[in-house]
Write a structure and sequence with these properties.
Elements lengths: L2 E10 L9 E9 L4 E6 L6 H16 L7 H9 L9 H22 L3 H4 L8 E6 L14 H14 L3 E4 L15 H18 L4 E5 L6 H11 L6 E3 L7 H10 L4 E3 L5 H10 L5 E2 L9 H13 L3 E2 L7 H12 L7 E2 L7 H4 L7 E2 L2 E2 L13 H6 L18
Parallel strand pairs: 4-5, 4-11, 5-6, 6-7, 7-8, 8-9, 9-10
Antiparallel strand pairs: 1-2, 2-3, 4-13, 12-13
Helix pairs in contact: 1-3, 2-3, 5-6, 6-7, 7-8, 9-10
């Protein structure tokens, strides 16, 4: 079996844009006419250039190769251009290609990917969602703790047992910093009012995006501890796990991190210094499914858990489901509400969500198929990045 063809899709995500402005998908096809799909997460270039990067890497390292040879493909791409370092751009590209190879491998074997990576451990996967705004909101749910508490009650009624929110304010290219007293007060109000609203029916996941220094994060953590969050997410920038470890040692709240990391090498540093108890690897950036399985195994040794991250499209979501299903130390899965809306429309068969849990698929491969007609009707024509940081210091 040989890989022969590639097609990329830059798909605009319609309003309300939950999951980002667009999704970058790839389809690989073999000489036996078996196809697999993948998705790249948050490569920091405009998406049409990202699609060309994916095509370039395919032509250099994957065309004409057997998709089963994941380790060979991985090492060649990881070392491309004399790099051999966790480069987030290269790893986003590689993740999409590797994901599509696994989809092909599973289809050839007639098995879900999780059956080929150790087998099914979990019958269903606990999921969480951000507290998202709704059309017609009179205030901003990200800054109004009263509205957020009201919305949290609605989500619990749907079946969710964990909710994420991030009221600490904008994140900047000049972080970390000390949060203002106003931001600290607002964060504490959110935690208090959400806990009062949901009681013990739902875990609270306090999200931040590396805004703080370790000292600043500990100031915030002391305010949050009375409300018992399940985690404190990426409190300091991801480039200094030793600083994040200071936060982990100084608070009773488990620290979660990993959205902006790639490869076992990044995660080994995180684990070795005790910086995080919960790893939020994103399958569209971390280096693919096999790399994620290795990281999950490393985490087991440290008695750490995985909580796959999702703020992109449903193909990464499908890969997250595969790795979660076969990992003994899986904790919880990020979704975007109930996996409906455009995340369902872009797939021929939506991901199955019932009463707070995702049900792993039994179909071969990743268990999802891209609806190419829907993709063709929603081209993204802009040049913006998937996510942006504020470009000036925040006082």
């Amino acid at each position: 079996m040989k890989l022969t063809d590639i097609e990329t899709f830059v798909v605009g995500n319609p309003p309300p844009h939950f999951g980002g402005r667009y999704f970058v998908f790839v389809k690989l096809t073999t000489d036996g006419n078996v196809s697999g799909i993948g998705e790249a997460y948050c490569v920091p270039f405009e998406p049409h250039l990202v699609a060309k990067m994916i095509e370039d890497v395919f032509d250099r390292y994957a065309r004409g190769q057997d998709p089963h040879d994941i380790e060979t493909l991985w090492r060649r791409v990881y070392s491309s251009g004399f790099t051999q370092h966790p480069d987030l751009t290269v790893m986003g590209v590689l993740s999409a290609l590797e994901m599509a190879c696994w989809d092909i491998i599973g289809k050839e074997a007639g098995q879900p990917v999780y059956k080929l990576l150790g087998g099914r451990v979990h019958e269903r996967l606990r999921s969480y969602t951000y507290i998202y705004p709704r059309e017609g909101d009179q205030t901003d749910v990200y800054h109004d703790p009263d509205l957020a508490a009201e919305r949290a009650v609605d989500y619990v009624a749907q079946g969710f047992t964990a909710l994420k929110f991030d009221p600490a304010g904008p994140y900047s290219a000049f972080d970390g910093r000390q949060l203002s007293l106003e931001a600290l007060d607002l964060s504490e109000r959110f935690a208090r009012q959400l806990r009062e609203a949901v009681g013990s029916k739902a875990d609270l996941l306090f999200g931040t995006h590396g805004q703080m220094t370790a000292a600043g994060a500990l100031r915030l953590a002391r305010r949050l501890e009375p409300y018992d969050p399940l985690w404190f997410e990426e409190p300091v920038p991801p480039d200094a796990p030793e600083e994040m470890a200071k936060v982990a040692r100084g608070t009773s709240i488990p620290v979660a991190a990993g959205e902006r990391l790639a490869t076992k090498y990044d995660f080994a540093r995180l684990l070795d210094c005790g910086a995080a108890a919960i790893l939020q690897l994103n399958l569209g950036r971390v280096g693919g499914l096999l790399e994620a399985k290795k990281i999950a195994g490393m985490a087991e040794v440290h008695h750490a858990q995985i909580a796959p991250h999702l703020y992109c499209g449903p193909v990464v979501g499908a890969a997250n489901i595969q790795i979660a299903t076969c990992s003994p130390n899986f904790l919880i899965l990020e979704g975007i509400e109930q996996w409906g809306g455009f995340h369902a429309e872009i797939l021929k068969t939506p991901i199955r969500w019932e009463e707070g849990y995702v049900l792993p698929p039994t179909e071969p491969g990743l268990g999802v198929e891209l609806d190419e007609e829907v993709a063709a009707r929603h081209p993204y024509t802009g040049t913006m990045l998937h996510l942006d940081m504020t470009g000036h210091p925040i006082g």
